[in-house]
Each structure stands twice: as structure tokens, then as C-alpha cells.
Design brief:
By secondary structure, this protein is of the alpha+beta class. The protein folds into three domains: 266 residues, Nucleotidyltransferase, domain 5 (2-Layer Sandwich); 63 residues; 67 residues, Alpha-Beta Complex (Hypothetical Protein Ta0175, Chain: A, domain 2), CATH 3.90.1070.10. The protein is 32% helix and 21% strand. The strands form four sheets. The chain has a five-stranded mixed sheet with strand order 3-2-1-4-8, with helices on one face. A five-stranded mixed sheet has the order 11-10-9-12-13, with no helix packed on it. It has a four-stranded antiparallel sheet with strand order 14-15-17-16. β14 and β15 form a beta hairpin. α6 runs parallel beside α7. It is elongated.
């Protein structure tokens, strides 16, 4: 499933020289983007306006590290419809702006009563970006932070995104972003106090990354080697985050055919790859199991057929050609029985003997007819449906089938052998 990753421009902030400045509305400007066919490798990257973005199955927007603040709190127990209000009440004293002007998002897999992270960003600015992308026919599936609290810790050296910029390569000031289990912080690289903001000592598992333009000054400042990571690689890595800031009032509300489309895109996303692999493996195992079972059953059937043929040829060596072993075995057995003068199961003597076991004593039948396979008798006078049913059940236990004819007579024959 192809994924289009768009780097959102840095939010324009008011300054002391222009305190009355309002957030700029996104206009026709270029955005840095990355296109990946599978969410793992880069397929294409570049910069263009939103209306010129390449098509993709899923769209992910990435925020600059400086546009998100992070707050640690215990997730309150509240209905989903009132959860945002509960979070705003808990964060009211630590937020610099009014909670109504900010957008809140809870960490993925957060549990009630346990500490969790809450991401905070400017609501008006984020909404304007989403509206600009929607106007360009881009349905954003996820909004992820450029850096989030995580382990192992990451130290990222990058150029500052000035207001309206959407690529670190066009910045000027070098920034340091620290993302670890205790939160995310960003500060300028220069100054004597900058180095002291990093933990001392640094975690042994920490990762040190830098964009290409600032890799050399970062290594001199840090005193150790760093891994060069291009902005495109950083965007691709950020898109794999479990975070999604589209929550509460910004949560996508799909209708109609979009519901199936969204569910399909989610199922085909990299996060669901283990599930897809598991389902394919399960289907393959089931198909192989069915084939093995069918082969085993076919092999067993052929073995039994061979046993019947061998039994027929051993019991009746005169049979040269075997077409239907059970039928030929019955035919040869009946022939031997007839030669020996023994009555068969459907002979008159055998059927009369079975009837005698359930027939009232000293009560003759009004009529008896035998056609070589079945015996037809008239029921005794005075028999009703109950007596006939009892007669049928008693003879059925002996393997004789009793049918009632239209004229009331009873036809008896041996049932087919299983």
C-alpha cells in the first residue's frame, strides 16, 4: 500500500516586534513530501504544491518537533465524549494558551488510571493545514509528530523550520531535539548552556542523528560521531509512529464507501503487516492440510479397495476379472449357498421365519404372495396402526423392512446391506 508523507510547514508565531500578527493562512506554497510503495523504502521524494502531490493509498502529515508540546499525566476515567474536557481541566495550569485554542491528543494504547503522554498543538493552525489539504483532494489519514517520547532516546540535530518553511534544508539556525522517555525538548545549538541541557551521562543506547547540512558542526559540538539522516528518511521514520493526532474533534468521520476504503487502507498499512502475513500463512496451512487429508483419504480408500479385491480372489479364485468386488463377492456367495441348498436372506423360508417371530400365534394371513425378493402378507383381522407399527419395529430390528401398500397389505424385504 503506497503512502504519501507530507511535512507540514512550521507554525508562524507572533514576535515581540509584531505582537498583533495572526497565524498565517496556508496559501499556494510548496511542501516537502515522500512517497513510499510499502511504508519501508523511499520510492520518490520532492517538493510541490498540495494540488500537485502524487496519488497514494494513504496520506500522513508530519509536524515539526517545535510545533508540539508534551505533557505527562494520569489518564482520567471519563466518557469518550468528555475526555477532552477532562484533559483540558488537568492541563489548564501548565498550558500557555487557553485550552479551547489548543488541540489535544492522547498517546496510543493509553489506559485509564495509568500515566500517559498528551500531545498539544495549536488547534487553529492545524485545522487550517488540514483544510488546505482537503481542498487539494488529499484525505489525511494520520497526523504524526516529528519527534515523540520514546525509548531508546534520540538526539536529532537539524536546521530550524522558519515560519512557512516545510523543509529543514532551507533553515538557518541549528537546533537540537531531544526525544526520550522523559519527554521531547528542542533548543538552539549555540550557547554555553546548550550542552548542559542534555542528560549527563547520555544513555548508552541513545541514537545521535543529524541532517546532512549540520552533521559536521553537530559532531564538533557533541564530540562524537553522528548518523546522517536526510529529512526524507526522518519523515519516513516518523510515519511509522503509532501516534495519530487526529483525535476528538479532528477525528475523521467516514461515511458510505469511505468506511470500507478506510478500513481497507488500514488493513493494508505496515502496522497490519503481521496480521496479513498470519492470515496468509493460516490459509496456506489450511490448503496444505486439506490436500494432505484428501490424499490420505484417497490412499486409504484405494487400500480398502485392494483388500476387497484380494479377499474376493482368495475366496473365489475362479473370478479372473474384478469390476465390483462387493457385488461379485455377493453373487459368488449366493451361488455357493444355492448349490449347498441353504436358504438366502430374501428366500421365502427366511422371510417366513422372521415374520413368525412377530406374528400372533394361530392367526393365519388372509393372503400370502412371494415374488422372489419380497413377501407380501395381509395383516391379521383387528390390527390397527399401533399393532402394525409395533410389527414394523420388531421386524426392523431383525433387518427386515416393512412397507404398507395402498390396499393395506404388508410387504417385507431385507433391507440393503451397509
Amino acid at each position: 500500500m503506497s503512502i504519501l508523507i507530507i511535512q507540514l510547514p512550521a507554525r508562524q508565531r507572533s514576535s515581540a516586534s509584531a505582537p498583533e500578527a495572526a497565524p498565517a493562512t496556508p496559501g499556494p506554497q510548496s511542501y516537502a513530501y515522500v512517497l513510499s510503495a510499502d511504508g519501508e523504502a523511499l520510492s520518490r521524494q520532492g517538493r510541490c504544491e498540495l494540488a500537485q502531490m502524487p496519488p497514494a493509498d494513504s496520506v500522513v502529515a508530519v509536524l515539526a518537533p517545535t510545533d508540539v508540546s508534551w505533557h505527562r499525566l494520569t489518564l482520567p476515567k471519563a466518557p469518550q465524549a468528555r475526555l477532552r474536557a477532562a484533559l483540558a481541566s488537568l492541563l489548564e495550569e501548565v498550558l500557555l494558551d487557553e485550552p479551547e485554542q489548543l488541540h489535544l491528543a492522547v498517546a496510543p494504547q493509553a489506559k485509564v488510571g495509568q500515566p500517559t503522554w498528551v500531545a498539544v498543538c495549536d488547534h487553529t493552525w492545524l485545522t487550517s493545514q488540514l483544510m488546505a489539504m482537503e481542498k487539494a483532494q488529499l484525505r489525511v489519514d494520520r497526523v504524526v509528530p516529528g519527534a515523540a517520547p520514546d525509548e531508546p532516546a534520540t538526539v536529532l540535530f537539524h536546521e530550524a523550520l522558519e515560519a512557512g518553511q516545510s523543509s529543514w534544508e532551507s533553515g538557518h539556525e541549528v537546533l537540537v531535539t531531544w526525544a526520550g522517555p522523559d519527554g521531547v525538548s528542542t533548543w538552539p545549538l549555540g550557547g554555553s548552556l546548550s550542552r548542559g541541557l542534555l542528560p549527563d551521562p547520555l544513555p548508552p543506547q541513545a541514537r545521535f542523528l543529524a541532517t546532512p547540512p549540520v552533521a559536521s558542526p553537530a559532531e564538533r559540538w557533541l564530540g562524537r560521531a553522528v548518523t546522517v539522516q536526510t529529512p526524507a528518511e526522518h519523515m519516513l521514520l516518523a510515519s511509522r509512529s503509532l501516534w495519530n493526532l487526529l483525535q476528538f474533534e479532528l477525528a475523521p468521520r467516514s461515511k458510505g464507501a469511505h468506511v470500507l476504503s478506510d478500513q481497507w487502507r488500514r488493513f493494508m498499512s505496515p502496522a497490519w503487516r503481521p496480521v496479513r502475513v498470519g492470515l496468509v500463512s493460516l490459509v496456506v496451512v489450511q490448503v496444505l492440510g486439506l490436500n494432505l487429508w484428501a490424499w490420505h483419504q484417497q490412499h486409504t480408500l484405494k487400500a480398502r479397495q485392494m483388500q476387497r479385491v484380494q479377499l474376493l480372489q482368495q475366496a473365489h479364485p475362479q473370478v479372473r476379472v474384478v469390476l465390483d468386488a462387493p457385488v461379485q463377492m455377493q453373487r459368488e456367495t449366493d451361488s455357493l449357498r444355492a448349490q449347498a441348498g441353504e436358504p438366502g436372506a430374501n428366500d421365502l423360508e427366511s422371510l417366513m421365519a422372521v415374520v413368525a417371530t412377530a406374528w400372533p400365534p394361530e392367526t393365519p394371513s388372509a393372503s400370502v404372495r412371494y415374488d422372489g425378493q419380497a413377501l407380501t402378507v395381509a395383516p391379521p383381522a383387528g390390527w390397527g396402526p399401533g399393532e402394525i407399527e409395533q410389527f414394523r419395529v420388531q421386524l426392523g430390528a431383525a433387518g427386515v423392512q416393512v412397507d404398507t401398500e395402498a390396499d393395506g397389505q404388508l410387504t417385507l424385504r431385507r433391507g440393503p446391506r451397509s
